[in-house]
Structure formats: C-alpha cells, structure tokens
C-alpha cells in the first residue's frame, strides 16, 4: 500500500575518514547560496562583513566577473541542472507547482550517475516535491533537505530525508554541511557529485548568536544602491548569514584537505539570484526579482588544483545554462544526447585553452520583465541599451549611439520570448500521486487550494500552512493525478487547541 502524507502545516561533528585513494575522476561539489548578492563578499569591497574562506577559494581558483543567473530561485536551479532555459522545461514560477522541472529532461545528476558517480543533494531543491520531480527521481542517490523554495524555520527543522520526514540537527546550513562532508570523505574510491544548496541568506532572517552578535548593532560602512529603501536590520542579518555560509564553506574545504581529496575535487560556488533586499551590491542596479545587473549577476568561483589556474579572473559573460556542459567537459562525462541545450561549455576559459566565448545573446526573464545581453551590451526591460564595459551600473543609455545593436537585441529577445512562450502563464499540472519512484507522496499545504474561510497563512505559498479552517463549509484540496491505481492510505498533519483534537 502506498502512503500519501498531507502536510497541513509545518512546525518547526561528523568525523573525517582516513585518507582514501583518489578517485579516477574528480569529485564535483556545486555550492549554491540562496539570495546572496554580488556585493555580499569582502573581496567585492564590502567591509561590513568578512568572508575569508570564499576569498581564499577565489585566490586558489578562478572567479568570473560576469556570470548570469535568473532573477529568482527555481529557474536558476533548473538551468544549472539541465543546461537549458528554464521556461523550456516548464519552470515558470516559484510555487503552486510552477517550479517543477519537466521529468522528461535529464539532469546533470543523471549524467554523473550514469558515469559511475555517487550523487547526493543536500539542502534546498525547489524543482518539485512529488515523484517524478523529487531529487531521488532526478539522478540523486540520496537527498537531505527540503523541496520547496522557502523554509519557515532554520533550527531543528522538519526535513525530507530520502522521501521520508525527519528532523534536522541544529542550524540548517551547519547540518547540511555536516552531511556533505560525511558524504564526500567516506572510505571509497568512487567519485562523488554533491549538490549543496544552502537556504541562506534567504528569509526568515534566522542565524545563531555567534554570527548575529557581531552585526546586531553594526554601523554599515557600505549601503545599498537605493539606500533609502534599505532595511538595516535585514541587511545586518543577511551579512551574519553570509558569514555563517563562509564558515561552513571553510569547514567543507578543510574536510577535503584532511581527507586528501582537495586536489581531486572541483569546487563550484555561486548564488541563485541577486540579494533579497536593497543592500550593498557594488553599485549594480536592482536586486532579486530584477532582470537588471543587480538581480542576475552572481558570484562564480571555481577551484580544481593543477587544472584550473589560481588567481585567474575571467571577464567573458557566461551563464547558469553553461554550468552543466562545463562540468561535463571538465570531468569527461557525457550529457544525455536526447535533448538539445542552450548552454555552452566554458571549460576552455577556465583551463586557459581559450580566452573568449563564441558571440551569443543571453536572456533573463521574470514576471513580465526581460533583458538581453550580448558581449558587453545589455538591453533592459525598458528598451534602454547600456555598455557594461564602461557603465556596469547602468547609468547612461547608449541606444542612440548603437541603433543596430538595439535593433538586433530587441529582435532576438522577442524571438526568444515567442519561441518559448515565456509571457504565457504556467500551464496547470496536477500533482502526481502513486509514482513508483517514491513509496510516499507529500502533498504540502503550500500546494493546496482553499474554499470558504480557509486560507494560506501568506500570499507567497512556498512555506505556508492553512488557517481559519473552522467550518464544514471550508475545505482544502489538491489537484492530483493518480499515476497507478490502487488503495492508498492518507495521513493528515494538523494543529489546533487540545480541546479540538479530532474535530
């Protein structure tokens, strides 16, 4: 009998193994911060925080000056996994099922698994909860984290461990790092692919006192591009959370050193979109949700000793769609040939074989706003053209000086939007129940529809519960597709006053 779990609400040192023989292929660790901006690093001139381990990662490897992601979480993650623009594979939102990645499109994890890698995803997934969208159905051998785009509590939270509910241990980023270190440093010669997707500095702005104390009364030495819109306490919490991320990255790098795996491991560090607030961003226009530079320009750091030059800086524009083909080329694995990809490998850039990418246009889109980038030029959502080489902060419209470039980018952007119908609303898809990939199906409150007085606790459904469900006329429902006929057991988790239990 399969079991369905209706989640009506959400309540909220590993030892290093002895050094093992190096794997025949390099390990790969992709680290994704959540809502960390371009300016949330001390090596970007932000003196309000300290990120020594990320600074060291930059010094020991290669950093990119123009790495582009999408303006929000789920589309970026889909593009990292597939090498394709997210809209092609049904990812058109961040909740209500619009974040689900088409299961027909193979992922980077599928490719690593087929090549003999152990694969693990730790942290935030945000590309689907039920099978066949769940990480265990997308090429990962193990998963520990949460599948929505937002989690409501970061201390000892309720989590998904290989498709079953469990509770975390302490502050979530620390817990995720513990699991990643343990997976990477076990006694095995089989190479590992690890997807370590942190949940911070995304809200809720929760961080242990160890990091908060330094920032709680801090006078910020750098301010947001739109300083009048900056929430100072929010910024202080974000800086504390980034310093915690830096500490955790330092622990992971130390684990690789102590297990003698550092030289055989490719480490990639990036963020999924711009900062979640108007805080210091090196003068770039915009933040999370914007298609301007501040919303989509992300840090990208890559280290692989003896293969990727240390201290190298790359100016060529690259994007999230390029990461999968790049890692495939660096490791010698093959991506499935059953689908075409939008991304190109930038492995020749990081190895020093080439200094330029082929000329092409990169596209950004979110919530009706779009932008096109080609070489140093940016066409923004208002049809303004900027030369980012001389004007990275988008202050001077040079469209009148380059009408041919404006016309070209306008046409290319329109063709891209039309081809993938990016302005069309997400096509409703039922939530799957009974897919054989998982024995248990979660139907979270965030994905339910409501009737009567019953309502979600927040307009953004990523991590919500249903409240005011107090009358027989009230109801909640999930639009489901039962994949396999059979008899199903359902368990509903709810909370109420003790006197009302069983009502």
Task: Describe this structure as you would to a colleague.
The protein has 503 residues and is of the alpha/beta class. 21% of the residues lie in helices and 21% in strands. It is built from ten helices and 26 strands. The chain has helices spanning 52-60, 73-82, 108-114, 172-184, 209-212, 232-258, 293-296, 323-331, 347-351, 403-420; strands spanning 2-7, 27-33, 62-64, 67-68, 118-124, 142-146, 158-161, 164-167, 192-197, 265-271, 297-298, 300-303, 312-314, 318-319, 361-366, 369-374, 377-379, 385-387, 431-433, 440-444, 449-451, 455-456, 466-467, 475-477, 480-482, 488-493. The strands form seven sheets. The chain has a ten-stranded mixed β-sheet, with helices on both faces. Strands 15-16-17-18 form a four-stranded antiparallel β-sheet, covered by helices on one side. Strand 15 (361-366) and strand 16 form a beta hairpin. The longest helix is centred in the middle third of the chain and has 27 residues, at 232-258. It is globular. The model is unreliable at 9-22 (pLDDT under 50).
Compile the SSE list and pairings:
Elements: E1 2-7, E2 27-33, H1 52-60, E3 62-64, E4 67-68, H2 73-82, H3 108-114, E5 118-124, E6 142-146, E7 158-161, E8 164-167, H4 172-184, E9 192-197, H5 209-212, H6 232-258, E10 265-271, H7 293-296, E11 297-298, E12 300-303, E13 312-314, E14 318-319, H8 323-331, H9 347-351, E15 361-366, E16 369-374, E17 377-379, E18 385-387, H10 403-420, E19 431-433, E20 440-444, E21 449-451, E22 455-456, E23 466-467, E24 475-477, E25 480-482, E26 488-493
